[in-house]
Amino acid sequence: MARTTLDEHWAVAAIPADRRALLLERADAAALLPGDGLGEPISDGLALLGTAYELAALSQLETALQPVPSAGRDLAQAVLTLGAARAFRCAAALRPPIDEGESAVTWALRLGALALVSRQTESYVRWWDARYHVSEVVKRTASRLESEPWEPYARGTLWVAWLGLLGAPVAAIPEHAADELPMLTATRSRLAAFRERRAEHDMPGDGPVLNAAALRARMVEFAIRHLADATELLTVAVLRRTLPDVSGEFKLHLSAARSAMAGDHGQDMLLAWLQAAGVTLAGGVTAQLELPGF
Fold first, then answer.
1. How far is CA 14 from CA 45, 93, 163, 187, 220, in A?
2. Across-strand partners of 38?
3. Could you read off the pLDDT of 24-38 as tens digits, one per residue?
4. Coil, strand or helix: which one is 39?
5. What is the DSSP letter of 177?
6. Cα–Cα dist 32/89, whole Å
């Protein structure tokens, strides 16, 4: 039933079934091979197919995250997981963007969220070994964050913190190498530094919004604030293995951040996958705590 529901979604059904099968076969053959990943001419087809599976999967997100068990929720969760798995296969085979640091970070972040939702965190760790050049780009980007203005600093710091939550090896910090969960303790350190800088940052005023730039600044600040609160909530819960489930409060923060970024389709999709991954990690979907690398 989940496969049929996924394949009948308009975005997936628009691609002929034999074309989908061929593209997935090519993706499976290349996904974890060392090297740069697949480029043109097949990359356009794979990227389109991956996006179609993401759209089909995310169409089930709200139902999948409902707190009350039901047959509809079970089906939605199965479709979300299957769509994430297929989208992961497509994206892992592609050549990541490495010409601009933030693009490489968000690419890896989206891939990590897809991996967590589809229970493929081991494949995600292997992907970092296969695409070693991405690690270098992400490390350079992370090392420059302290010197960036507030908005790129805040956005980049939260993205790198999320890489740690998703189990990306690149997120570890040498001084935490001996810790039980080095990526998560590194994430906690980044969030502590983030809180200190946020305390010194001048927030946009509450007065009337006079132009589009002021409106954008206010929306971005709103999204950053809620994303930061969600990230810290989830990090503490995972480190402490907190038992009541924090997925409800986490979902509220991510929903608020998504609302603020609704006009940016790329950011909205990324935040949607982080929402799905975070609830999975917190136990709201799987009913258990899943710790990458634990």
1. 12, 22, 33, 40, 34
2. 94
3. 999 998 888 888 888
4. coil
5. T
6. 9
